[in-house]
Amino acid sequence: MVTLRAASFLDKGGTGKTTSIAHLGVALTELGHDVLLIDLAGKQGDLGKHLGEWEQVKEDIANDEDWPNISTVFDDTWNKIVDTVGEQEAVDKLIIETEEGPDLIPAHPGLDSLDAELGNVDDATERYSRLDAFLSQYIDGRGYDVVLVDLPGLTNNVSYNGLWAVDGVITPVEMGPFESEQADALRDDLETFRDRFDVEVVLAMVLPNKMDTRTKLASEYLEEFEDQYPDAIAPEPIPVSQDIRNAANSGQTAFALEEPSTTAERAREAFLADAEALVDRLGEKA
Length: 286
Ligand SMILES: Nc1ncnc2c1ncn2[C@@H]1O[C@H](COP(=O)(O)OP(=O)(O)OP(=O)(O)O)[C@@H](O)[C@H]1O
Ligand SMILES: [Mg+2]
Fold this sequence. Notes:
Elements lengths: L3 E5 L8 H14 L4 E5 L6 H5 L3 H9 L14 H9 L1 H8 L1 E2 L5 E3 L5 H9 L4 H5 L1 H10 L6 E5 L6 H9 L2 E6 L3 H21 L4 E7 L7 H13 L13 H8 L12 H24 L1
Parallel strand pairs: 1-5, 1-6, 2-4, 2-5, 6-7
Antiparallel strand pairs: 3-4
This protein binds adenosine-5'-triphosphate and magnesium ion.
């Protein structure tokens, strides 16, 4: 079987990358897929927080029970770990199961220095293909249908590893003129990446987020995105929902809410439709 891979990416903070990875991940499990989420977005561990796992991860770190962790897969440390405990256990220890369904490889403070460490690697292929090599050798055989990677909101050696490794990019955008500029910059970024490294990376999904459906302006921006990205636009925009924000703060996605508001309900439906489109699109590319 093929494990599909996608990553959230936009050279900008706060548009909903982590929210989208968490919700698409849960939506995919609701649709019956086995999903692994990987947090490369930084030591603050936002994806783990969103899924209610970060307190435990922090405790493990404090108790020195954080070995191996995501930062160890990027250098020789990983080979030593595999030599010591064996491949099966090494990978098992990296992955945690979350209550809402997806498995998770959480962030780690070691991610902080990773960008600089990768920067010391001379050869570009060597520098940028490490995540890809790790996923191919250690994760692809594990039976996951989809791997989703949350990347930092900037272009660096870590996000380049993400782009190199995946079949497609998910880009959450807010509705506004600045956002469409960002999306154009993204298109250029991906083109540069393709040309420089001859790596096929596709914009799989432009995901309009925090959509206020009551305003005419938002609808106009949405139409603009639809025109600009006819193949990549997500089938359903994600409504702005206070419930999403509140749920995130208590370590849950909108799918875990027992009494979802109308907007949270609509967000769930939208994420389900978008998750389904995502696997279709990635499947065509892979
Ligand atoms: N549809 C939505 N409705 C309401 N709030 C949302 C929605 N999507 C995201 N948010 C909120 O917006 C904020 C930013 O979202 P998120 O953390 O997912 O963005 P990000 O792109 O991962 O940011 P960063 O670049 O800092 O990692 C969070 O407080 C989140 O709860
Ligand atoms: Mg984030």
